[in-house]
Specification:
148 residues, Hypothetical Protein Yqey, Chain: A, domain1, single chain, mainly alpha, 2 domains, Arc Repressor Mutant, subunit A
Length: 148
């Protein structure tokens, strides 16, 4: 069992003992999503797999948050924001802009990319290195800017 999965399970137990209903509900969502993936793939998830699950959940919640704000549903938006903040506590420390720029430069040089046709190679390499630590959309924009 991965260390991150254990941390989430322990946080759930602590929240249950503290009777923090909102926190328990959000952590149970995370746990159920992890278990669903384990059952679907018939394997124990590594920390990288769990980070992938958390990334998907963050993306879904960010989309919902913007829709709720646009619709004026502050009650639902507050719940989504709470879940986003909770999920982020289990994510690795995000990379700074300077670190991302340096990583993009070094990856382009390592792969030998010279045009937009090499973007797939660069992004494949970067995705493995920045798992859970950077937004792939902004990373893709940085790579495009460098290769253009």
């Amino acid at each position: 069992m991965g260390d991150l999965k254990t941390q989430i399970a322990e946080a759930t137990k602590v929240a249950m003992k503290a009777r923090a209903k909102q926190r328990v509900a959000a952590l149970r969502l995370v746990n159920s999503e992890i278990q669903r993936l384990e059952i679907d793939e018939r394997k124990a998830l590594s920390d990288d797999d769990v980070i992938g699950v958390l990334n998907r959940m963050l993306k879904q919640r960010n989309d919902s948050l913007s829709q709720f704000k646009d619709a004026g549903r502050t009650d639902l938006a507050d719940q989504e924001q709470f879940e986003i903040d909770l999920i982020r506590t289990f994510m690795p420390e995000p990379l700074s802009e300077a670190e991302l720029d340096a990583l993009v430069e070094s990856t382009i040089a390592a792969v030998g990319a010279s045009s937009m046709q090499d973007m797939g190679k660069v992004m494949g390499q970067l995705k493995a290195e920045t798992q859970g630590r950077a937004d792939m959309g902004s990373l893709s924009a940085k790579v495009k800017a460098k290769l253009a």
